[in-house]
Inverse folding.
Protein backbone atom coordinates (compact mmCIF):
# COMPACT_ATOMS: atom_id res chain seq x y z
CA UNK A 1 0.00 0.00 0.00
CA UNK A 2 1.22 3.50 -0.84
CA UNK A 3 3.02 5.19 2.09
CA UNK A 4 3.58 1.99 4.06
CA UNK A 5 7.08 0.54 3.89
CA UNK A 6 6.93 -3.28 4.15
CA UNK A 7 8.58 -4.74 7.25
CA UNK A 8 11.04 -6.78 5.16
CA UNK A 9 12.25 -3.59 3.45
CA UNK A 10 12.64 -1.83 6.81
CA UNK A 11 14.71 -4.75 8.11
CA UNK A 12 16.80 -4.79 4.96
CA UNK A 13 17.56 -1.06 5.38
CA UNK A 14 18.50 -1.59 9.06
CA UNK A 15 20.85 -4.41 8.05
CA UNK A 16 22.49 -2.37 5.31
CA UNK A 17 23.03 0.56 7.74
CA UNK A 18 24.47 -1.86 10.29
CA UNK A 19 26.80 -3.39 7.71
CA UNK A 20 28.08 0.02 6.58
CA UNK A 21 28.85 0.95 10.19
CA UNK A 22 30.48 -2.36 11.06
CA UNK A 23 32.16 -3.87 8.03
CA UNK A 24 35.63 -2.66 9.02
CA UNK A 25 35.33 -4.41 12.35
CA UNK A 26 34.08 -7.55 10.69
CA UNK A 27 36.81 -7.76 8.09
CA UNK A 28 39.87 -6.26 9.75
CA UNK A 29 39.57 -6.44 13.47
CA UNK A 30 37.07 -9.08 14.25
CA UNK A 31 37.13 -11.50 17.11
CA UNK A 32 35.92 -13.98 14.53
CA UNK A 33 39.32 -13.79 12.88
CA UNK A 34 41.45 -13.57 15.99
CA UNK A 35 40.36 -16.91 17.40
CA UNK A 36 38.35 -15.45 20.26
CA UNK A 37 35.76 -18.08 19.48
CA UNK A 38 37.22 -21.17 21.06
CA UNK A 39 35.84 -23.57 18.51
CA UNK A 40 32.65 -23.98 16.52
CA UNK A 41 29.97 -21.36 17.17
CA UNK A 42 27.28 -22.95 19.33
CA UNK A 43 24.91 -19.95 19.23
CA UNK A 44 24.75 -17.26 16.58
CA UNK A 45 21.52 -15.35 16.55
CA UNK A 46 19.79 -12.40 18.23
CA UNK A 47 22.96 -10.27 18.39
CA UNK A 48 25.01 -12.96 20.09
CA UNK A 49 27.68 -15.30 18.80
CA UNK A 50 29.59 -17.66 21.04
CA UNK A 51 31.36 -21.00 21.11
CA UNK A 52 30.47 -21.44 24.77
CA UNK A 53 28.29 -24.29 25.92
CA UNK A 54 24.69 -23.97 24.71
CA UNK A 55 23.51 -27.48 25.55
CA UNK A 56 20.40 -26.07 27.27
CA UNK A 57 18.86 -25.69 23.81
CA UNK A 58 18.45 -29.46 23.46
CA UNK A 59 17.65 -30.22 27.08
CA UNK A 60 14.15 -31.83 26.78
CA UNK A 61 12.41 -29.66 29.39
CA UNK A 62 13.58 -26.46 27.74
CA UNK A 63 13.17 -27.75 24.18
CA UNK A 64 9.49 -28.49 24.87
CA UNK A 65 8.86 -25.08 26.44
CA UNK A 66 10.64 -23.33 23.58
CA UNK A 67 8.63 -25.28 21.04
CA UNK A 68 5.42 -23.99 22.65
CA UNK A 69 6.79 -20.42 22.57
CA UNK A 70 7.61 -20.81 18.90
CA UNK A 71 4.13 -22.14 18.17
CA UNK A 72 2.66 -18.77 19.20
CA UNK A 73 4.44 -17.55 16.06
CA UNK A 74 5.71 -14.08 17.09
CA UNK A 75 7.45 -13.93 13.72
CA UNK A 76 8.87 -16.30 11.12
CA UNK A 77 12.09 -17.91 12.15
CA UNK A 78 11.81 -17.00 15.86
CA UNK A 79 15.26 -17.71 17.36
CA UNK A 80 15.57 -16.28 20.84
CA UNK A 81 16.52 -19.46 22.67
CA UNK A 82 18.95 -17.85 25.08
CA UNK A 83 16.56 -15.05 26.09
CA UNK A 84 13.73 -17.54 26.55
CA UNK A 85 16.03 -19.78 28.58
CA UNK A 86 16.87 -16.85 30.90
CA UNK A 87 13.20 -15.96 31.50
CA UNK A 88 12.32 -19.63 32.11
CA UNK A 89 15.23 -20.12 34.49
CA UNK A 90 14.43 -16.97 36.47
CA UNK A 91 10.71 -17.79 36.59
CA UNK A 92 11.60 -21.22 37.96
CA UNK A 93 13.90 -19.62 40.53
CA UNK A 94 11.35 -17.11 41.88
CA UNK A 95 8.27 -19.36 41.81
CA UNK A 96 8.97 -20.39 45.42
CA UNK A 97 8.40 -16.78 46.54
CA UNK A 98 5.06 -15.20 47.36
CA UNK A 99 3.35 -13.29 44.58
CA UNK A 100 2.05 -13.47 41.03
CA UNK A 101 3.64 -13.14 37.61
CA UNK A 102 3.21 -10.00 35.48
CA UNK A 103 4.35 -9.35 31.93
CA UNK A 104 4.07 -5.90 30.30
CA UNK A 105 4.69 -6.34 26.58
CA UNK A 106 3.41 -9.76 25.56
CA UNK A 107 2.80 -9.79 21.81
CA UNK A 108 1.77 -13.42 21.05
CA UNK A 109 2.88 -14.58 24.51
CA UNK A 110 6.02 -16.49 23.54
CA UNK A 111 7.88 -15.93 26.84
CA UNK A 112 4.85 -16.51 29.03
CA UNK A 113 3.81 -19.65 27.13
CA UNK A 114 7.31 -21.09 27.56
CA UNK A 115 7.37 -20.24 31.26
CA UNK A 116 3.96 -21.79 31.93
CA UNK A 117 5.22 -25.10 30.60
CA UNK A 118 8.78 -24.92 31.94
CA UNK A 119 7.80 -24.29 35.56
CA UNK A 120 4.50 -26.20 35.53
CA UNK A 121 2.72 -22.93 36.29
CA UNK A 122 -0.66 -24.50 37.21
CA UNK A 123 1.02 -26.23 40.18
CA UNK A 124 2.19 -22.88 41.60
CA UNK A 125 -1.36 -21.62 42.31
CA UNK A 126 -0.27 -18.22 41.06
CA UNK A 127 -1.88 -15.92 38.53
CA UNK A 128 -0.17 -14.62 35.38
CA UNK A 129 -1.19 -11.10 34.27
CA UNK A 130 -0.46 -10.22 30.63
CA UNK A 131 -0.64 -6.52 29.69
CA UNK A 132 -0.41 -5.30 26.12
CA UNK A 133 -2.24 -3.27 23.51
CA UNK A 134 -1.99 -6.52 21.51
CA UNK A 135 -1.59 -4.35 18.42
CA UNK A 136 1.78 -2.65 18.81
CA UNK A 137 3.38 0.46 20.24
CA UNK A 138 1.47 3.65 21.03
CA UNK A 139 3.15 6.28 18.89
CA UNK A 140 2.37 9.14 21.30
CA UNK A 141 4.26 7.32 24.06
CA UNK A 142 7.48 7.16 22.05
CA UNK A 143 9.75 10.20 22.28
CA UNK A 144 11.34 11.88 19.26
CA UNK A 145 14.73 10.80 20.58
CA UNK A 146 13.61 7.17 20.59
CA UNK A 147 12.06 7.51 17.15
CA UNK A 148 15.32 8.80 15.71
CA UNK A 149 17.26 6.02 17.50
CA UNK A 150 15.23 3.53 15.41
CA UNK A 151 12.12 2.73 17.48
CA UNK A 152 9.99 4.19 14.66
CA UNK A 153 10.79 0.99 12.76
CA UNK A 154 8.43 -0.88 15.09
CA UNK A 155 5.40 1.17 14.09
CA UNK A 156 3.06 -0.93 12.01
CA UNK A 157 5.09 -4.07 12.58
CA UNK A 158 2.82 -5.76 15.17
CA UNK A 159 -0.37 -7.58 14.17
CA UNK A 160 -3.56 -7.62 16.23
CA UNK A 161 -3.09 -10.78 18.31
CA UNK A 162 -5.63 -10.26 21.12
CA UNK A 163 -7.95 -13.17 20.18
CA UNK A 164 -4.99 -15.44 19.57
CA UNK A 165 -3.54 -14.65 23.00
CA UNK A 166 -6.91 -15.20 24.72
CA UNK A 167 -7.03 -18.66 23.12
CA UNK A 168 -3.41 -19.54 23.87
CA UNK A 169 -3.89 -18.93 27.59
CA UNK A 170 -7.55 -19.92 28.06
CA UNK A 171 -6.67 -23.11 29.94
CA UNK A 172 -4.50 -21.34 32.51
CA UNK A 173 -4.89 -18.95 35.42
CA UNK A 174 -3.99 -16.02 33.19
CA UNK A 175 -5.63 -12.61 32.98
CA UNK A 176 -5.18 -10.86 29.67
CA UNK A 177 -5.37 -7.06 30.07
CA UNK A 178 -5.77 -5.25 26.77
CA UNK A 179 -4.91 -1.59 26.34
CA UNK A 180 -2.12 0.91 26.62
CA UNK A 181 0.22 0.91 29.59
CA UNK A 182 0.26 3.07 31.73
CA UNK A 183 -3.56 3.50 31.48
CA UNK A 184 -4.22 -0.19 32.16
CA UNK A 185 -1.87 -0.60 35.15
CA UNK A 186 -4.66 -0.23 37.78
CA UNK A 187 -6.50 -3.13 36.11
CA UNK A 188 -3.77 -5.48 37.26
CA UNK A 189 -4.92 -6.48 40.74
CA UNK A 190 -1.79 -8.39 41.77
CA UNK A 191 -0.93 -7.35 45.32
CA UNK A 192 2.38 -9.18 45.46
CA UNK A 193 4.57 -9.97 42.49
CA UNK A 194 7.60 -12.30 42.26
CA UNK A 195 8.13 -12.09 38.49
CA UNK A 196 7.88 -8.90 36.43
CA UNK A 197 8.81 -8.85 32.75
CA UNK A 198 9.10 -5.47 31.02
CA UNK A 199 9.20 -5.63 27.23
CA UNK A 200 7.40 -2.73 25.53
CA UNK A 201 10.23 -1.38 23.34
CA UNK A 202 10.06 2.20 24.70
CA UNK A 203 10.76 4.25 27.80
CA UNK A 204 7.53 5.86 28.97
CA UNK A 205 5.29 2.83 29.57
CA UNK A 206 8.23 0.74 30.77
CA UNK A 207 9.32 3.18 33.47
CA UNK A 208 5.69 3.86 34.44
CA UNK A 209 5.02 0.11 34.85
CA UNK A 210 8.19 -0.53 36.81
CA UNK A 211 7.48 2.41 39.13
CA UNK A 212 3.88 1.27 39.55
CA UNK A 213 4.78 -2.32 40.44
CA UNK A 214 8.00 -1.65 42.36
CA UNK A 215 6.47 -1.76 45.86
CA UNK A 216 4.47 -4.87 44.97
CA UNK A 217 7.54 -6.87 43.90
CA UNK A 218 8.53 -9.03 46.86
CA UNK A 219 12.05 -9.17 48.24
CA UNK A 220 14.08 -11.52 46.03
CA UNK A 221 11.59 -11.12 43.17
CA UNK A 222 12.94 -10.49 39.71
CA UNK A 223 12.38 -7.76 37.13
CA UNK A 224 13.53 -8.58 33.61
CA UNK A 225 14.20 -5.73 31.18
CA UNK A 226 14.12 -7.42 27.82
CA UNK A 227 15.55 -4.58 25.71
CA UNK A 228 18.18 -3.26 28.13
CA UNK A 229 21.39 -3.96 26.19
CA UNK A 230 20.28 -3.51 22.58
CA UNK A 231 21.81 -0.49 20.78
CA UNK A 232 18.49 0.70 19.33
CA UNK A 233 17.03 0.69 22.86
CA UNK A 234 19.74 2.89 24.38
CA UNK A 235 17.14 5.37 25.70
CA UNK A 236 15.55 2.56 27.73
CA UNK A 237 18.96 1.67 29.15
CA UNK A 238 19.61 5.29 30.14
CA UNK A 239 16.17 5.59 31.77
CA UNK A 240 16.57 2.32 33.70
CA UNK A 241 20.09 3.19 34.81
CA UNK A 242 18.62 6.37 36.34
CA UNK A 243 15.72 4.38 37.84
CA UNK A 244 18.15 1.85 39.35
CA UNK A 245 20.26 4.60 40.87
CA UNK A 246 17.18 6.14 42.51
CA UNK A 247 16.15 2.74 43.89
CA UNK A 248 19.74 1.94 44.91
CA UNK A 249 19.87 -1.31 42.94
CA UNK A 250 22.26 -2.61 40.29
CA UNK A 251 21.14 -3.92 36.91
CA UNK A 252 22.83 -7.11 35.76
CA UNK A 253 23.52 -6.73 32.02
CA UNK A 254 23.50 -10.08 30.20
CA UNK A 255 25.06 -10.82 26.80
CA UNK A 256 21.54 -11.66 25.59
CA UNK A 257 20.72 -7.94 25.92
CA UNK A 258 18.48 -8.50 28.94
CA UNK A 259 18.87 -6.45 32.12
CA UNK A 260 18.07 -8.14 35.43
CA UNK A 261 17.05 -6.51 38.71
CA UNK A 262 16.54 -8.48 41.92
CA UNK A 263 14.37 -6.59 44.39
CA UNK A 264 16.29 -6.12 47.64
C1 LIG B 1 8.77 -7.11 21.83
S1 LIG B 1 7.04 -7.28 21.99
C2 LIG B 1 6.89 -8.29 23.43
C3 LIG B 1 7.38 -9.69 23.20
C4 LIG B 1 7.01 -10.65 24.28
N1 LIG B 1 7.63 -10.35 25.55
C5 LIG B 1 7.25 -12.09 23.92
O1 LIG B 1 7.21 -12.94 24.79
O2 LIG B 1 7.45 -12.43 22.74
C6 LIG B 1 6.57 -5.68 22.53
C7 LIG B 1 5.11 -5.56 22.85
O3 LIG B 1 4.91 -4.37 23.60
C8 LIG B 1 3.61 -3.90 23.31
N2 LIG B 1 3.52 -2.49 23.69
C9 LIG B 1 4.31 -1.48 23.29
N3 LIG B 1 3.93 -0.32 23.89
C10 LIG B 1 2.89 -0.62 24.69
C11 LIG B 1 2.08 0.14 25.59
N4 LIG B 1 2.27 1.45 25.79
N5 LIG B 1 1.10 -0.51 26.25
C12 LIG B 1 0.90 -1.83 26.09
N6 LIG B 1 1.64 -2.60 25.27
C13 LIG B 1 2.63 -2.00 24.58
C14 LIG B 1 3.44 -4.17 21.82
O4 LIG B 1 2.09 -4.24 21.46
C15 LIG B 1 4.19 -5.49 21.65
O5 LIG B 1 3.29 -6.56 21.66
Amino acid sequence: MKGIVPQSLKLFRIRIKWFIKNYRTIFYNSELFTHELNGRATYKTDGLITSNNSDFINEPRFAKAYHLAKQTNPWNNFTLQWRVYIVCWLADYVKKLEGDFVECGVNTGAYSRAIIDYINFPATNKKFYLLDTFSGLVEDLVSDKEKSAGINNYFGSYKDVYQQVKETFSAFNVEVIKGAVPDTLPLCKAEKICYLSIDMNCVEPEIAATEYFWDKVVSGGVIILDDYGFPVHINQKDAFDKFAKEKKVEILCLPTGQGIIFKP
About this structure: The first helix runs from residue 7 to 28.
